[in-house]
């Protein structure tokens, strides 16, 4: 019989979303073509537009912060450092611990020693 899985909470949606975004970052090319850069810019802009958040002032602030920084899509390093900084801005607004971005590749790409 089917196990009755509940709908996702905003924490689960958030954690899954960051997992997807950082995993996409881990596969982003070192030297993306113009097409790949345009696609990533559009993807991030649309992702932020469709992100399933209730109309909350916090989420509005996060969307504003996104519009102010715009993703750096020029390279692997550029995109991932932009994404980590943006994630830290969200952490800050939600009063969460700041992530030390020097550990980004250990956490999301290469694994810890
Ligand atoms: P998460 O923030 O989900 O992070 C998951 C893991 O990523 C962490 O355990 C850590 O290992 C790693 N990590 C943390 N920070 C970084 C970083 N800077 N760089 C790299 N890796 C990092 N929640 C709300 O309540 N209100 C909102 O308005 C809201 N808006 C959101 C908007 C977006 C676009 C997204 C993606 C999420 C939003 N969330 C919001 C969800 C929120 O950001 C968290 O995902 C959720 O609260 C669960 O937090 P968590 O402690 O599991 O860690």
Automatic annotation (TrEMBL):
Residues 6-108 form the ERV/ALR sulfhydryl oxidase domain. One of its GO terms (cellular component) is mitochondrion. The chain holds residues 67 to 179 of 179 of the full protein. It catalyses: 2 R'C(R)SH + O2 = R'C(R)S-S(R)CR' + H2O2. It comes from the Eukaryota. Keywords: Disulfide bond, FAD, Flavoprotein, Oxidoreductase. The keyword Oxidoreductase applies. It is an enzyme of class 1 (oxidoreductase). Transmembrane segments: none annotated. Its EC number is 1.8.3.2. This is Sulfhydryl oxidase. One of its GO terms (molecular function) is flavin-dependent sulfhydryl oxidase activity. Its cofactor is FAD.
């Amino acid at each position: 019989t089917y196990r009755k899985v509940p709908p996702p909470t905003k924490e689960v949606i958030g954690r899954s979303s960051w997992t997807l975004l950082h995993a996409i970052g881990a596969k982003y090319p070192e030297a993306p073509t113009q097409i790949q850069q345009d696609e990533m810019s559009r993807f991030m802009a649309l992702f932020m537009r469709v992100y399933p958040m209730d109309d909350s002032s916090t989420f509005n602030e996060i969307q504003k912060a996104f519009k102010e920084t715009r993703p750096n899509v020029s390279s692997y390093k550029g995109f991932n450092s932009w994404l980590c900084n943006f994630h830290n801005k969200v952490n800050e607004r939600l009063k969460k611990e700041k992530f030390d971005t020097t550990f980004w590749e250990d956490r999301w790409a290469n694994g810890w020693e």
